[in-house]
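Margin note from the TA: students keep mixing up input and output lines. Inputs are the sequences; the output is the structure of the whole complex. Example:
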Amino acid sequence: METYTLIVLTLAATIRVATPLLLAAIAGMFSERSGVVDLGLEGKMLGAAFAAAAVSAATGSAWAGLGAGIAAAVLLALLLAFATVSQRGNQVVAAMAINIMVAGLGPTLALAWFNLGGQTPQLDGPGQRFTSLVWPWASTAAEQPFPGLLYAQLLSGHNLIVYAAAALVPVSAWVLFRTRFGLRLRAVGENPLAVDTAGISVTGLRYQAILISGVLCGVAGTYLSTAASAGFTRDMTAGKGYLALAALIFGKWKPYPTLFACLLFAFTDALASRLQGVALPLIGVIPVQAILALPYVLTVLLLAGFVGKATAPAAIGVPYSKEK
Amino acid sequence: MSAPAKLPRWAERGLLPLINLAAALILSGVVVKILGESPWAALKLLASGALGTQEGIGYTLYYATNFIFTGLGVAVAYHAGLFNIGCEGQAYIGGLGSGLVALWLGDRAPLLVVLPVAIMAGAAFGAAWALIPAWLQARRGSHIVITTIMFNFIAASLMTYLLVNVLIKPGQQSPESREFGANAVLPAVHEVCAQVGITFSPSPWNLAFAIALLAAALVWVLVWRTRWGYALRVAGQNQSAAVYAGISPSRIIIQAMLLSGALAGCLGLNELLGSQHRILIDFPGGAGFVGIAVALMGRNHPVGIVVAAVLFGALAQGGSQLAFDLPKINRDMVVVIQGLVILFCGALENVFRTPLAKLWHGRPARDPKPTGVTPVPP
């Protein structure tokens, strides 16, 4: 019984950890499918986390925070698009530049505006955060182990962004594989010359993809600072953008496998905090760091072709120039 | 590197980086203005903090030493057409190698023995950490950018584990090793100066700076004056040409990454043997990423890298002064400037190159090829 409750609680934690990963990974899926390497997920998320927390603190509205978060991430995405698509700059360098710049800019602005040593004020007012929605009868259902507890912990009790992220998976699958836009997007990531020859703007498509990525990163960042925690702290993304990228690769740039990868990576994270210092039968104490490093090790193994094979979009990382 | 020769060499190597730097600084000035401080006063504080006192100069060159090592690391990989984002992890693991030697030999052997062994261990550990991504890129086609990022995180986990569980000094809370023996401490410049009768304010600037300069010279000889360096540059610019010339690109990839990791791995000499005298959590402190900025700004040439490293060292040191004197600015402002420099020198360089070339030739410039590393298809 105890174990069962623990497992359910760990799964609930998995869902909460997976949400920003999933949003960022789907964001990356759009830009990478269009042929632009999206190492900038980290920076866009962090920028959004700061903007959302700052605006929510100032206005008292989490929704205004969400708007600001999305706006900030979209602005950064536009900068990325300008540098990589219009100026044909190196995509990796541009993204690293944005990640580093935002890592400094958030705490700098926070200090100047709020004077709290590089953080935003604690969001504790009503409506300043996205709080958990409790579904009907959840508290009554929680007393009954199966399926009541599952209903109360896994279906009920999350905030709006979590459900939105879950809905995003089928929606993005539909957009990518069932719409004209999706077909073109995938084509531009595989063979931009063919798309250009067909009279469709490569630049336009890539801008659209990068902007979608910006919006989704904005939601992911907002989740971090106004739902998962109550305010912005320095480096609060803590590598989640890169982990999302790993999940995207692990999911072979496909929506449902990416969802699975995000859940798997989030589960290792939730497990790591549960297993801290706990001795398991036969194995003994597993170092937390080993569990935390697992997603990265798995991704490297996958990239190496030892566990399945991940094939990136063919034109990824190559700026497109008409004249060539 | 792959940019067509549209500008004369002096403009390409000197003028363009200066314009890019100026653009980054102007934008940083705008940020400072938004924060409510005077950009001009901030710049003066930055400069005086970094170069106004002997202590400031010492700190500047101490920071610069780290950046020379990582900058050279990024540059060597770049010449092979590879983007090594993993210098942070390679420096971390390389420092572990140097640190272990220092712990082992620090009170058993003289510095003249400890230092070469520590250099070799640092280089070997750093190279080993670069070897796996290199091998995966060369033989299995795994994208090196992604694998080196993953290896940064794996290195961080590994080092945290080692410091918390293995290397920690018994009876201590913070995850740090015990202090190195006296013979594993690189002499600081002010100590050397004092011995010959010159007084210089104390700073952590130490012998590792000379080693870094030596490494820069070595890289210059290797890349521009040897057969191997020629092969490296050919493979980096045109893989099929390299194959026709009998050069194996995959072998070059592995060798270049080994050298790159070895150079980054030497960071521990300065940071641990030169300054901290123990192994501690996250001692590279982002120097691996600054190395990217340094290499880009220095055009991947050792001379440029040393100059850019000193500049970034001054930024790091002047930034502390800035944070100290201006209440509305903290050290993170320096990170913003670093990011902007990478943006302008690396990603947006065509913004200024194209008009400059037009100005130079008096006619529209040829469309520039994509700059930077040609990404290796994963």
